[in-house]
Prior knowledge:
Elements: H1 3-15, E1 40-43, E2 59-62, H2 72-86
Antiparallel strand pairs: 1-2
Amino acid sequence: MRPTSLRALSAIANSENMRMRRWDFVAAYLQGNLEHNEVVYCHAPPGYATVGADGRPRVCRIEKPVYGMAQAGRRWQRSLFPWLLEF
Length: 87
């Protein structure tokens, strides 16, 4: 959900004296950011070469949190909370 959409929905709910109890964020985990010094690698996905020309296994460096990562929820939370405090 875009911040402008959230603000609009909150304003409508407030003007109608409604309470917002639960929010469902689609793809929320993809909105977080890894910390500057945090480096995370994973295995190559199916269909990609898993062994390089030199015989060493290939891995992928993760630049944004993805579903299934242990850090994904915490990273999204750290990006959401400051915004909510300003709101």
